[in-house]
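Design job #97: recover the sequence.
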């Protein structure tokens, strides 16, 4: 899975042209979650609240770029 960003122990990766809805994968240690790019909804998995908030904030800052890449 192509890694597109790394910050504060979190790794963001995306499969381009993957299955709908457009989403990315985030890893934090042994934890993983999938996040819908357009809505910011967590599709699966969970993180500690602070790490989750950072991932959702990152999505808000980069969602337009992610949709174009999708």
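Job complete. Output follows.
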């Amino acid at each position: 899975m192509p890694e597109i960003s790394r910050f504060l122990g979190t790794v963001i990766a995306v499969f381009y042209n993957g299955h709908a809805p457009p989403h990315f994968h985030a890893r934090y240690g042994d934890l993983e979650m999938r996040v819908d790019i357009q809505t910011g909804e967590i599709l699966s998995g969970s993180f500690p609240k602070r790490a989750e908030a950072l991932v959702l904030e990152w999505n808000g800052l980069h969602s337009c770029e992610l949709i174009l890449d999708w």
